[in-house]
Write a sequence for this structure.
């Protein structure tokens, strides 16, 4: 599905089921509003699924991987090869996301959007490589405008392929890409006009001097490219990343297919932000999982206006926060469906007497 | 087990397993500390269970119920009868805690510590009634000093009975008692010396005028009884509640039996605070589940020094927050046990080549 087609396909969730859900939550035998964020989320999920008995039985987390030319500037502690190694690890099942997805009852699917490595064709991943790593954004654009659109469309196509082959009740998005907190912070600075020093974080563990350097690199990239904050594809092309485009496409694709989608931390939220700038209607399908300790994350959450469920000081990525949030969202569906209303309690008691 | 005996029985968790856990977490193939609070909690659970492969297979939430004479002052929106009705609901399985416990794979056990109702002997609850409701703390002490000790010992005995009959890998504590945010706030004011107006919250949904009245009631009770902040049993007896004593006993009992225990929101945390004032060693076994929106809760958490896992704007009680936190703690055990170390990845790769 082409990008503009997918955007057009997004329809609002069912307002009637949202209202029915709100009514049922209010009528349950407990103080009004006492289950806080579980209630808001349950109501939203009911509107999306068009039922008060939502079952998130088939959950899939897609972890999008890509490499970044900007690592040449020394913005990450880990070597670029780790991106490809981690993709193998996701397939092998022993990485952090595999462990947390298993706990949440979710399947993990890795995706190559732009890793600087040739994966074997037989490897069980989404093969969606746009190019082998982006350009070094301090010297050149990350990618062309066409590539940016292709990356987003690759994300959309993954949702279509998943939904064609199996039932998908909820999608999670996660990232893997050595160096990718740098483009994420650059994109956020472009959108918000905020100073990169307030948005850049320590990524996998930079010290003070390295953080100052990372901020310098982001400032140089923004000064060089002058990305247009009113043109999300321009921002993605000039200072983004292939996996970030893919992550945006996952949110748009899920929204177009009517599937609720929960994004992980900094990078996945950057992708979700691109998605919602391109397609504001996608916000109705989007859930945010956690407050990352990465500095810029809070600002993205505020811009999206969707409150995260967790605050566990995570800064791993891969979709780990999304996996944990899926468990809470799953619990929220049970709250709506299973807690008895005062009326149900009354009828039940009358029958037993 | 008598209170002083139980306190003496609490031994520190295994420091060696805590260190082994910390080492394994650091050696896992991911950035140091990137799983935030999951890591701290996994390490603590390893020390308690004396293994790196902790399984929280058998989880039990004990919901302690009691009534409060202070409801005569109009501090709650709900009539006192609701306490007993909710106990029947817990047994029947359709209350909020049943739904969330089921989702977390935990069993719910209701306990009568002081409900103003005669339950049938056959009813499947812990029958630990100290008295039928406390005294109205604005006019008289909540209970005698002997009753306060009995309430705590009732909590200890429930853990003993549970642990004798089945394996218990983790205990959760929850409360039910119309009017019980008033004694909880009073206890906290007594311990902290803080002004009740900063500690009292809206409970099940008081309006502004009712909140002002509730604060007045708490101030009157404190002025009348002058509870001694250095004597937790005095505080419990003068301005506490039977179920709050039971909740304290659950924490002490679990600690004495070497079982990790996670407390719910305001009331259960008040119980946990009493427990840790009586037996500071119990802190090593205690986990806090969530930041309640009730005003005084944050101060108790700070006093305990144990960071809650969740912040979902819950204010229900019953153990609902504890149930949700159990899912996160369960995930933490999987993080420690299952995410591969760099060395394990290397060995595995060498074998596959």
């Amino acid at each position: 599905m082409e990008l503009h087609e997918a955007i057009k396909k997004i329809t609002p969730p069912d307002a009637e089921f949202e209202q029915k859900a709100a009514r049922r939550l209010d009528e349950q035998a407990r103080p009004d509003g006492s289950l806080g964020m579980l209630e808001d989320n349950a109501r939203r999920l009911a509107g999306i699924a068009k039922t008060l008995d939502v079952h998130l039985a088939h959950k899939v987390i897609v972890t999008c991987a890509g490499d970044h030319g900007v690592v040449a500037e020394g913005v990450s502690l880990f070597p670029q090869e780790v991106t490809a190694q981690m993709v193998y690890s996701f397939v092998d099942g022993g990485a952090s996301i595999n462990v947390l997805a298993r706990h949440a009852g979710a399947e993990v699917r890795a995706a190559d959007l732009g890793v600087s490595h040739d994966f074997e064709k037989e490897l069980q991943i989404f093969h969606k490589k746009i190019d082998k790593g982006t350009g070094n954004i301090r010297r050149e654009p990350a990618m062309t405008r066409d590539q940016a659109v292709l990356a987003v469309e690759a994300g959309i196509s993954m949702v279509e392929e998943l939904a064609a082959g199996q039932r998908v009740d909820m999608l999670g998005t996660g990232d893997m890409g050595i160096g990718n907190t740098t483009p994420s912070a650059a994109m956020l600075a472009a959108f918000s006009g905020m100073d990169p020093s307030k948005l850049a974080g320590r990524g996998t563990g930079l010290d003070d001097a390295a953080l100052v350097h990372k901020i310098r690199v982001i400032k140089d990239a923004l000064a060089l490219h002058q990305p247009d904050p009113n043109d999300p594809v321009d921002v993605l092309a000039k200072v983004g990343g292939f996996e970030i485009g893919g992550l945006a496409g996952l949110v748009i694709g899920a929204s177009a297919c009517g599937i609720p989608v929960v994004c992980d931390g900094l990078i996945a939220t950057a992708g979700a932000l691109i998605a919602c700038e391109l397609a504001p209607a996608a916000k109705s399908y989007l859930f945010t999982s956690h407050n990352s300790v990465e500095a810029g994350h809070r600002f993205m959450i505020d811009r999206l206006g969707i409150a995260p469920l967790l605050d566990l000081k995570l800064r791993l990525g891969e979709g780990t926060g999304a996996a944990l949030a899926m468990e809470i969202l799953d619990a929220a569906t049970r709250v709506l469906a299973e807690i008895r209303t005062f009326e149900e309690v009354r009828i039940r008691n009358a029958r037993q007497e």
